Please model this.
Amino acid sequence: MEPKRISVLISGNGTNLQAIIDAVKDGEIKDANIVRVISNRVKAFGLERAKEAGIPTLYHNLKKFGEQSPQYQDDLELRESYDKALAELVLQDQPHLVVCAGWMHIVSPAFLNPLERAGIPAINLHPALPGAFNGINAIERAYQAFLEGSISKTGVMIHYVISEVDAGKPLVIEELDIIKGETCAQLEQRMHSLEWVAIVQGVQLALSNLPSVNNPEITN
Model:
């Protein structure tokens, strides 16, 4: 059977990417290859992780895209054009699955619709439980809510990507009790350890949920 093709989008250090790379290499994620890693930050260390693993990389940055496309005067039009171009780049590799692993850019329908037409799902890791602390700084916001007595636990979820931020159907949900007296930094480190497990589970589950015949086609 032909290995399933995975494209990974990153913005930073790439520890979750590394978890996927290791799981593919060790066979924990079965019958799959990472075909490309795309970053919107040129200095993202995740690009080095990909290169070390022999995975092709690509840099696609919104500001740089705007500088090269002066015809877009409106920010919304620019972002949609950027997302459309991102989708085209992804589709060139004909992946079966797109994984947002620390991808710090909210994608629009201009990115999601071409993938949907090609039958390619996208999943995302978010460091919070479903419906709680959607968006940025989720760990910090959860920690503050704990200090205020509003919550006793937080967690990590892997979910399908839709246009609403962090609101897609969850694939994996992992809860984590917040420990009285721990710092936000300590909580963040424990969350990262949980993320590395959840992202592997989410990728494997998303791949297993693919139709038995899934041949991505480039569509616009």
